[in-house]
Structures are given as structure tokens and as C-alpha cells.
Automatic annotation (TrEMBL):
Full protein name: Prostamide/prostaglandin F synthase
Gene3D superfamilies: Glutaredoxin
Catalyzed chemical reaction(s): prostaglandin H2 + [thioredoxin]-dithiol = prostaglandin F2alpha + [thioredoxin]-disulfide; prostamide F2alpha + [thioredoxin]-disulfide = prostamide H2 + [thioredoxin]-dithiol
Transmembrane segments: none
Superkingdom field: Eukaryota
GO molecular function per UniProt: prostaglandin F synthase activity
EC number: 1.11.1.20
Any single GO BP term: prostaglandin biosynthetic process
Location in the cell: Cytoplasm, Cytosol
Length: 201
């Protein structure tokens, strides 16, 4: 976990996925703690699966006064993502990808992404996601990775700064609940197999 300058990153602008209104990132933790889930892409099949997993915590988060927010790096795919009801929190877009950069979420290169997109492991991971009825597409920025930022109310401190090392990395639900000091009834699902050589969907 690296040091996060909440003052700097908090000034970054995000666009509300419903209203189109621009807000500063820090406004999301001003009045309550917040779980910020940074997706690789709205069309990413494994990202959609992760969004459904994190959404299992939403009732417990809401009951504890914690906001759940999803952030995508571009608007492409947002409509399908919302219509698919993959995520139960608020959705924002970081069109400049400034927060992604400031939080150290890496970018892949064409050399590391293209071979993976054509490999058998991608098809295998897609088959597992398909078993849960979750589809994906190749639209948008295939090179961006994501992660998670959990911030205490008022920006008092960073509780978690999680950076994906591979496209399939994610925090277990129990770890999210534990760091927030809440009890959660959510049960984690079986994730599609995903590693650097797999996840470009």
C-alpha cells in the first residue's frame, strides 16, 4: 500500500454516471466513509463479476452509513453496465483518468494485452463468468487496470489502498467489511480464473 495524498487526489473531478454532474472526488467521503471500486472497464467481463461481488456488501455498507461507489475510466460501456445492474452503488466516470494515475493503477501495453486476449485462458475465464450469466465485450480501453480505495469519513485517513497487480486481483469481501468494522452477511462467489495472461475481457 502506497501513501495516498487525499488532498491532491480529492480534487480530481468525476462525472456522475446518472446526472452528468461533475463532482470532486473528496465530496464522496466528506459526510461518510466510502468504498471506491475502480473498474478496469465497464465492459470487462471479470470487472462486472467483481462489481456483482462487491454489491453483495451494499446492504451492510448502507446500514453502517458507508457509501459504495464505482468508478470507470471512460463513459464507453456505462449504459450497458447500468442496464445490466452489475453494481448496486453510485457510479462515476473519471474521464481524465487522473485518479487512476494518482492512485498508481497501472496500464498494460499492447504487447502484454493482445496475446492474452487471444489465448485459451481468456476463453476459460469467460466460460466461468458465462456460467454465472455475466457477459463482457472488448469495447473501450483494454490497457487500464483498477483497484480500490476505502476512505474514512471526512478524509480522516485512507483505510485501504488496493492496486490490482493482475486484472483478476480483488479484495475479499470479508477484508472490506473488517477494515470498516462492520459485520457482513455476504458470501463470496467463485471467481473466474484470471491472471496477467488471462484477463482482457
Amino acid at each position: 500500500m502506497t501513501n495516498v495524498d487525499l488532498v491532491q487526489v480529492g480534487k480530481n473531478l468525476l462525472k456522475n454516471g446518472d446526472t452528468g454532474e461533475s463532482v470532486e472526488l473528496q465530496s464522496l467521503w466528506q459526510d461518510q466513509p466510502v468504498v471506491l471500486f475502480f473498474l478496469r472497464r465497464f465492459g470487462c467481463q471479470v470487472c462486472r463479476w467483481m462489481a456483482t461481488e462487491i454489491s453483495k456488501l451494499e446492504p451492510d455498507l448502507r446500514a453502517s452509513g458507508v457509501a459504495l461507489v464505482g468508478v470507470g475510466p471512460e463513459e464507453l460501456g456505462l449504459k450497458d453496465f447500468k442496464e445490466g445492474r452489475f453494481f448496486k452503488g453510485s457510479i462515476y466516470v473519471d474521464e481524465q483518468k487522473k485518479s487512476y494515475k494518482d492512485l498508481g493503477f497501472k496500464r498494460y501495453t499492447a504487447l502484454t494485452v493482445v496475446p492474452a486476449a487471444l489465448g485459451k485462458k481468456v476463453r476459460d475465464a469467460a466460460a466461468k463468468a458465462n456460467a454465472e450469466g455475466i457477459q463482457g465485450n472488448f469495447s473501450g480501453d483494454l490497457l487500464q487496470s483498477g483497484g480500490m480505495l476505502i476512505v474514512a469519513k471526512g478524509g480522516e485517513k485512507v483505510l485501504v489502498h488496493f492496486i490490482q497487480d493482475s486484472p483478476g486481483d480483488h479484495l475479499p469481501l470479508e477484508d472490506i467489511a473488517k477494515v470498516l468494522g462492520i459485520s457482513a452477511n455476504a458470501k463470496a462467489g467463485q471467481m473466474p480464473v484470471c491472471n496477467d495472461a488471462v484477463c482482457t475481457r
